[in-house]
Design a protein that fits this description.
The complex is a heterodimer of chains A (299) and B (399). Chain A is an all-alpha fold and 299 residues long. Chain A is 70% helix and 0% strand. Classes of the chains: A mainly alpha (299), B alpha/beta (399). Bound molecules: adenosine-5'-diphosphate (ADP) and magnesium ion (MG). Chain A: One of its GO terms (biological process) is lipopolysaccharide transport.
């Protein structure tokens, strides 16, 4: 054992500068650390951290559902209240035309998507900033924090879908047989939402005042997205650009077609939304991974 | 480049790390200001190196003590080894599972219970639930948490958090165990148990990097010492040599801090052995310490004399009342049998006025200089047993 150690030290002194020799003023430029992402390794790490994602989400949910009534209300009441207001304002006053589907159902479908997005965005944006002390302690892929908030929002969404089922009973209609189209739309919705959460979470670490922008984005977003009105309200020639920027527009429109009108979602719009959300996801992920390396320095 | 090193290997190659030296608030509006300044050609960035050119090759099973004064970059290095922090330049390669106790706040999540934290930590180390369950009782038993294990970690005292953190890091069978200077939070009994545990895992082949200001504790665990100074490796050698160098530098620094403007000064000191030769002091033989004080203070005072090894806490301290008359005053102290084993020691003195509760300082406690003692080395204690201070005890064995 001792002999082994002695040999190590000798080797060290051979290759390193002799003790007392001046240290160069800076590292050789070719040694400057660069982040290299190997997709396989990244996937493996994320998989290895699944317990952490589950535990983080569980902690949030448990805190919320400790008072079962209030927790449930959080998931259900906000969209229902908005739905009631939208019905009064947009249906009665503005007279939005929704064809064969009841307006309340029409709006509620949009609200489920919007609520999922805004929950993930608002909580996800703070997910790193609220856990800074933790980030200094254990290594794990940092993207698990926004991912956990999306998991929580997903649980809320599932409850919202349950309420949607009840609404179908109330309005005495059945979801259309084309509802399976919802699955690819769900993938687009997740990809876009996660991409935004990734960017915002790391932005808030470096620019703490960005968090004050979140309520503004949320409030404007609910009207800038076709939640209360159909996508058709946006001028025809701008629709493609719009969906490119905000894929949620096509997602909500697609859900409505599939669930309420028995149509397939518009293929062109859906493809644009899919491409756009992929860009948001990959771009967000790359930005996140690049900036991730400095998080512990500013924590 | 990426040779396949065995589990437990730590290698850093030309690692550099820098931090912002200027105060920067993490705000969007500051960044906008900064951007505007940059457009005007003022970069306005000020970086400071925390670590420079760190080359360490640690083999599996080695136990390395990382020593150095505050701010020398020890924690930064450990954080980079755990991959929590990234280097500015260089390559870091740590093979195998890493158990680390870097900050006092234990475990992973303050809102989760101790039990949940243990499982979570195991999961992050890549252990299966079953594997963690097999060690769960050991961890709880070691950390002495009892019923508190099902309470949220944020309600733990700092000692409990540290115990949990150490137990988790040390019992989930890491290949590499990194321990920063947090053990000091625990009580003496627990510290000793931690050291025992570290010795155990070291014997099982775990690589250990141990940071502590408790130098005897470092010496009791580690075989190799790395002394960091201002972000560079000053000495990388056997633990004794590294500690000796570090202790010398501490003493040199405390000597350098001048005590100007005090009523009394130490003009001269001499430590000499039996035959009057200052260079040869021997264990268990007579030694005379002679001090000459000067200054315009008149009156009674207490002179304190102490001897330390490496740290500022003395091994022993003796005092004597003196009467100063405004001129130089010479005082000698004879120690008939010097109780110090072979080594280098520091002589400390101070003078305080008598009868004042605020201990009116005439000459503050400071190190006067060093002297060497020749004689037997102390016997080596068992590993992980920390010697408080070296004392020679005359003895005889019979069997
Ligand atoms: N996150 C940080 N931001 C800026 N400076 C830092 C940061 N962390 C450490 N430093 C600086 O780096 C140096 C080394 O710190 P550290 O590794 O904590 O030293 P040690 O653990 O040896 O006391 C110190 O000067 C410290 O101020
Ligand atoms: Mg430190």
């Amino acid at each position: 054992m001792g002999g082994q150690r002695a040999q190590v030290i000798d080797e060290q002194q051979d290759r390193a500068a002799p003790p007392g020799a001046p240290v160069p003023a800076g590292p050789p430029p070719e040694l400057v650390f660069k982040r290299r992402l190997r997709p396989l390794q990244v996937a493996h790490e994320l998989w290895a951290a699944r317990e952490l994602v589950r535990a983080l989400a569980e902690r949030d949910l448990r805190a919320r559902y400790k008072q079962a009534v209030l927790g449930f209300a959080w998931a259900v009441l906000t969209p229902l209240a908005l739905c009631a207001i939208f019905t009064l304002v947009f249906h009665r006053a503005v007279k939005i035309e929704t064809g064969a589907a009841p307006y309340t159902l029409f709006a509620y479908v949009g609200l489920i998507v919007w609520q999922f997005f805004s929950n993930t965005m608002n909580q996800g944006a703070l997910s790193l900033a609220n856990n800074l002390s933790l980030l200094n302690k254990v290594y794990c892929p940092r993207e698990v924090f926004p991912l956990a908030t999306m998991l929580v929002a997903t649980v809320d969404m599932v409850i919202g879908i349950g309420v949607l089922g009840l609404m179908f009973l109330v309005f005495w209609t059945a979801p259309a047989a084309t509802f399976l189209w919802a699955l690819p739309l769900l993938a687009i919705q997740f990809a876009f939402t996660y991409g935004i959460a990734l960017i915002l979470s790391v932005a808030v670490v470096y620019l703490r005042d960005v968090r004050h922008l979140l309520p503004i984005i949320t409030q404007m977003g609910v009207f800038a997205t076709p939640v209360a009105y159909p996508l058709a309200k946006i001028p025809q020639r701008l629709q493609e650009i719009y969906v490119g920027i905000n894929p949620l527009g096509a997602v909500i429109e697609g859900y409505r077609k599939a669930l309420l009108y028995g149509d397939a979602p518009d293929a062109r719009m859906t493809l644009i939304a899919a491409a756009s959300s992929l860009v948001f996801l990959v771009g967000g992920y790359l930005v996140f991974k690049k900036l991730e390396t400095g998080i512990a320095d500013v924590a | 480049m990426s040779r396949d090193y065995p589990l437990g290997t730590i290698r850093t190659e030309q690692v550099w790390k820098r931090f912002r030296a200027d105060q920067q608030r993490m705000l969007l509006r500051d960044r906008v200001d900064q951007m505007a300044r940059r457009l005007r050609g003022d970069r306005g960035e000020d970086w400071r190196w925390a670590l420079r050119d760190i080359n360490l090759h640690i083999e599996p099973g080695e136990s390395v003590g990382l020593i150095g004064s505050n701010g020398s970059g020890k924690s930064t290095l450990l954080k980079m080894l755990t991959r929590v922090m990234y280097p500015y330049a260089g390559v870091i390669d740590v093979r195998g599972r890493i158990g680390a106790l870097i900050e006092i706040r234990a475990g992973i999540h303050p809102d989760l219970t101790g039990r949940e934290n243990i499982y979570l930590f195991g999961a992050l180390l890549g252990l299966k639930r079953r594997e963690v369950a097999g060690r769960f009782d050991d961890i709880v038993e070691f950390a002495r948490l009892g019923g508190a294990i099902d309470r949220q970690v944020k309600f733990y005292s700092s000692g409990m958090q540290m115990r949990l953190g150490f137990a988790v890091a040390a019992y989930l069978e890491p290949h590499v165990l990194l321990v920063d200077e947090v053990l000091a939070v625990g009580d003496a009994v627990f510290q000793q148990r931690c050291l025992d545990r570290m010795r155990e895992v070291a014997e099982q082949g775990t690589t250990i990097v141990f940071v502590s200001h408790d130098l005897p504790a470092v010496q009791s665990i580690c075989r190799r010492g790395v002394w960091l100074e201002q972000g560079t490796v000053r000495v990388d050698a056997g633990i004794k040599d590294a500690l000796a160098g570090y202790r010398d530098s501490i003493e040199a620094q405390s000597e350098a801090s001048a005590r100007v403007g005090e009523p009394l000064q130490l003009l001269k000191y001499e430590v000499r052995g039996e035959d009057g030769d200052a260079t040869t002091l021997h264990t268990d033989e007579p030694v005379t310490v002679e001090l000459t004080l000067g200054g315009d203070y008149r009156g009674d005072a207490t002179l304190h004399l102490g001897v330390s090894e490496g740290t500022s806490s003395p091994i022993f301290q003796i005092s004597h009342e003196i009467r100063m008359t405004g001129g130089d005053h010479r005082v000698a102290c004879v120690i008939p049998r010097l109780p110090l084993p072979r080594g280098r020691y520091t002589l400390w003195t101070g003078v305080y006025s008598i009868g004042r509760t605020d201990g009116g300082t005439l000459m503050s406690w400071h190190s006067a200089g060093q002297f060497d003692v020749f004689g037997p080395m102390l016997d080596t204690p068992p590993r992980a047993v920390v010697m408080a201070a070296p004392v020679f005890v005359p003895h005889q064995w019979e069997d």
